[in-house]
Amino acid sequence: MPDMTFLLVAGIAVMLGAVVQSSVGLGLGLVAAPVVSFLDPTLMPGAMLIATAVLPVLTLATEWRHIDWRGLGWAVPGRVPGAILGVWVVSTLDPTMMRVAVGSMVLVAVVLSIRSVRVRVTPSSLFCAGALSGLTGTATSIGGPPMALLYQHEEAAKVRGTLAGFFLIGVVISLTLLAAGGQLDAHEIRGGAALIPFLGAGFLAGRPLRRVVDAGLMRAALLVVVTASGLTLIGTSLLS
């Protein structure tokens, strides 16, 4: 069992991340992963993946009727080659430059979105967004922005439900591969399990915020979180 200092600090970060993700559809990894990694790098990535798997389940319990199943059918297959490419990128390219490149691309995509450059949700764009999410998620631990940007013009419940389904399937794949490769140990499992109560608290605390977002602020909230993702990737690279 992690010590109380870890539980207090990491738990608060996880709870805040869960508040953001339960209302917008992404944000848990953005807020919590850097804190958990700083406090105990040996818990990464298993503990955060376990936590990341639990939150979409809670979201799907309330948003499953709004899932874009057709969209998932095209995006999930794209995640597989993207993840494979991400493994190659991690093994061959400098991780600092990779984070800067991904963060810069995210910020450029946000600027283009603000300037009314809109990408239609089509089978090809879904597959590409899924592949980019697999690539960036594997290489940088932040894989939500490509899918979030693609769905930014959809209604809030549809965004949350679809992203939750996409994240859950992706995390299950990642955990399965880690376990099969012997890279998911008991220490990570205990750490992830200890964070679950904080996830539940954050999910409940995010309910009032969901009502605010649903009142027409979903796109703005998504763009803020995605922009923060890009800035975080660039900032952590420059400080490392």
What does this protein look like?
By secondary structure, this protein is an all-alpha fold. The protein has one domain. It is 81% helix and 0% strand. The chain contains 11 helices and no strands. Helix 1 runs parallel beside helix 3. The longest helix is centred in the C-terminal third of the chain and has 25 residues. Keywords: Cell membrane, Membrane, Transmembrane, Transmembrane helix, Transport. It is found in: Cell membrane.
Give the integer mean of the pLDDT values.
86
Listing every helix as H and every strand as E from the N terminus to the C terminus, the arrangement reads: HHHHHHHHHHH
Number of helices: 11
State the end-to-end distance: 29 Å
Q: Which value, in Å, is the CA radius of gyration? A: 17 Å
Q: Could you give the count of β-strands?
A: 0
Number of domains: 1
Flag low-confidence runs.
Answer: none
- Estimate the global geometry from the Cα principal axes: globular
Task: Determine the strand fraction and express it as a percent band.
Answer: under 5%
Helix amount = over 70%
Give me some keywords for this one.
transmembrane, single chain, transport, mainly alpha, 240 residues
Secondary structure topology:
Elements: H1 4-24, H2 28-39, H3 46-63, H4 69-92, H5 95-114, H6 123-140, H7 145-150, H8 156-180, H9 186-205, H10 207-214, H11 218-239
Helix pairs in contact: 1-2, 1-3, 1-9, 1-10, 3-8, 3-9, 4-6, 4-8, 5-11
Family: Belongs to the 4-toluene sulfonate uptake permease (TSUP) (TC 2.A.102) family.
Protein name: Probable membrane transporter protein
Subcellular location: Cell membrane
